[in-house]
Amino acid sequence: MPLKEARVMEIEFDLFMQAIALRHGYDFRHYAKASIKRRVLALAQAAGCSTVAELLPRILHEDGFLKFALSHLSVPVTEMFRDPQVMKALRAEVLPRLASFPRINIWLAGCATGEEAVTLAILLKEEGLLHRAQIYATDINDVALDKAESGMYSEEVVEHGIRNYMLSGGTGTFKSNFERSGTGYRVKPDIREKIAYAHHDLVGDGVFCEVCLVVCRNVLIYFDHELQKRVVTRFIDSLARGGLLCLGTRESLQSAGAADYFKAIDADCRIFKKMN
């Protein structure tokens, strides 16, 4: 690409980032640049725009375009019992610690379409803790949240969940947590009623609530170091005394400048306890 054309694209990208931040309050300017650029270009293509500049009047003036844009700018990639070794560690190392809390409030930040929230609820149920637990599952992507709230999943998603569940050490019947609905499955009410889905922007919004566990996996990798520090500070402020934090296996507290605030419970699975 000629240097002049690349510079014009850079200007268009910066203007779009500024427009969505100033017009709607969603600040993507501290996301990892290469990653967010790819998503903006994908948004332009999905919106039928030949350039990023053509997105500007739409994000500034078009009703309903923000929801469409956010659905492309976030990354709703997830599955039930994703990373079975981490789920095994949560069952063995985290849930026994949560049992000591009178009320088990969990914040799942970046819940996407809800598979991980359902996973956490199943783990709590199998350990006899679900009745005194509440999972607050948040995301910036309203399209993903709508799907999560429906509790509906395809047969393929559930079948893949069974494989992960068994690899994570599950000994129950995974499908007993679902009921058949059309060609797919719907999460049963005892699971759904323990999950509260809500719109929340990790960048612009404040502390969500006080919790004893924060789960935020594979989200920080899309942020630059400055934003990682800001977000992890919110997690620190949200965690109760002795609270726990679970990050993605490619994420670290060192890069977020917060290693001194936590003690590793399982370093490989990125499970940490807040230092008091």
TrEMBL record:
This is Chemotaxis protein methyltransferase CheR. SMART domains: MeTrc. Pfam families: CheR, CheR_N. It is an enzyme of class 2 (transferase). Keywords: Methyltransferase, Transferase. One of its GO terms (molecular function) is protein-glutamate O-methyltransferase activity. Its EC number is 2.1.1.80. Residues 1-276 form the CheR-type methyltransferase domain. Coiled coil: none annotated.
